[in-house]
Amino acid sequence: MKVGALLDELKLDYEVKGVDFGSDEKEKGVKGENYLAICANGRTPTLIDHKNNDFTVWESGAILQYLVDKYDTEGKYAGKTAEEKATVNQWLFFQVSGHSPVQGNLYFSQVYWKNAFGEDAPETVVKRFNNELHRVLSVYEEQLKKQTEKNGASNAWLALDRPTIADFSAFVWLGILSHFGDKLGVDLAKFPHVAKYIQLAESLDSVKEMRKRVQH
Amino acid sequence: MKVGALLDELKLDYEVKGVDFGSDEKEKGVKGENYLAICANGRTPTLIDHKNNDFTVWESGAILQYLVDKYDTEGKYAGKTAEEKATVNQWLFFQVSGHSPVQGNLYFSQVYWKNAFGEDAPETVVKRFNNELHRVLSVYEEQLKKQTEKNGASNAWLALDRPTIADFSAFVWLGILSHFGDKLGVDLAKFPHVAKYIQLAESLDSVKEMRKRVQH
C-alpha cells in the first residue's frame, strides 16, 4: 500500500502480485522458494522494476527511496535539499522502526498470539505495546499539530508542506487504527490531528487509486 | 555507535553527549525538556551538524543517510548508482525495522521486564522474539555467505564489496550478541559468517576509534 500510493502519485504503472502469509509453499508462500529467490527476508513488499532490467529491491522504505531516486528527480516527494531529505527520512525511519514494529506486535498479540502459542497474549505484552503505541501516536500528534499551524490544515503533512515518502509510509499504518482501533485499545478521538491526517491522505487521488488496486 | 563509526570513517570530528535513559529530568533526561526540544521522539541518537548551521536530525538511519548525502559525495558509503544505493538501503532498513526492534524486545524481556511489570517476562514473549531473532540471523548468515563467495572473506560486507552505511548500522547490533548472546539465548557459533563479520567490522580503524569515544 505504501509503495502503491507512491507509484500512483508518480503515475507509474504497476501490477500487484500477492503472496500467502505464513506459508512456505513453493509457488505462492511468502517463505516459499519462488518468493525467497527475490526477497531473502521472506517479507513483503518487494519491487521488480521492469523499466530497469527487472532490478529488484525489498523493504518498503528502501523501495520508496529507490523510486524517488530514480523517478522523482526534482525531489518533490523526497525533499529538494539535503536538509529537506533528512527531515523526510527522519519521519520515514521513525515510521518503519519506531511505529510499525510496535503496532505490529500489538496487532499480533490480539489476533495471532493464541493461535501461535495456544494461549491468550499475556496482559503485560498488551500493556507494553499499547503504552508504546500511545507514546508514538503522541509524537505524531504533536508534529501534525505543528505542521497544521505552520502550513495550514490542507498541507499538514508529516515532514514538509507537501506529501512525501514519509507520508506514504505513515498514513497506511495510521489508517489501520481507523478500522482496528477498538481491537488495539486505541481511540483516535484522543489524537485529533492524526485522525484529520488520515482523512487528508485518503483524499489524495493517488491513494484512492491505490485503494482500488492493492488489497490486504 | 552507528553514527560515530561513520563519522570516524568520514574523518569528521564529533563530540558525544550522553542523555539519561528512562528519565524525564529537564537537563539530562532522554524524555526531558532539553532533549525533546531537539528530538521530538525522545530517543537516541540525534545529530547536530555544527558545519551546517546546527541542522538537527534524529533516527540513526536518517542521520547516516544525511551524512553520506552531505559529506560522501562520491557515494563510497552510500552507493554510487541508484541500484547500489537501493541495495545498501535495503539492508539498512532491514536492520532498523526488522532486526533491532526484535533484538531490542528480547533484550528488554530479559533485562527490564521484571522491573517494568513486577514479574518475569512470560515464556511466550521470550519465545516469540528469540525465534524471530534466529530467523533474522539466518537471513544475515545467508547473505554474508553469498558475499564471502562473491567478494572474498576480507570484503564480505553486507550490501556491497566495501563497508557502507548498512554495515555501520548492522555490526553494532550484531556485535552486542558477542557479549550478551548467553543472556539472549543466541549462540553465534551457529552463525559463523555473522561471527566473522563482527570481527571484520571491529578491525576497521574507524570502528576502533569510535569504540574509544562512544560509550554505552
UniProtKB/TrEMBL annotation, chains A, B:
Pfam families: GST_C (PF00043), GST_N (PF02798). Residues 81-216 form the GST C-terminal domain. The keyword Transferase applies. It is an enzyme of class 2 (transferase). It comes from Malassezia japonica. SUPFAM superfamilies: GST C-terminal domain-like, Thioredoxin-like. Its EC number is 2.5.1.18. Residues 1-75 form the GST N-terminal domain. GO terms for molecular function: glutathione transferase activity. InterPro entries: Glutathione-S-Trfase_C-like, Glutathione-S-Trfase_C_sf, Glutathione_S-Trfase, Glutathione_S-Trfase_N, GST_C, Thioredoxin-like_sf. PANTHER family: GLUTATHIONE S-TRANSFERASE II, GLUTATHIONE S-TRANSFERASE-RELATED. Belongs to the GST superfamily. The lineage of its organism: Eukaryota, Fungi, Dikarya, Basidiomycota, Ustilaginomycotina. This is Glutathione transferase. Keywords: Transferase. It comes from the Eukaryota.
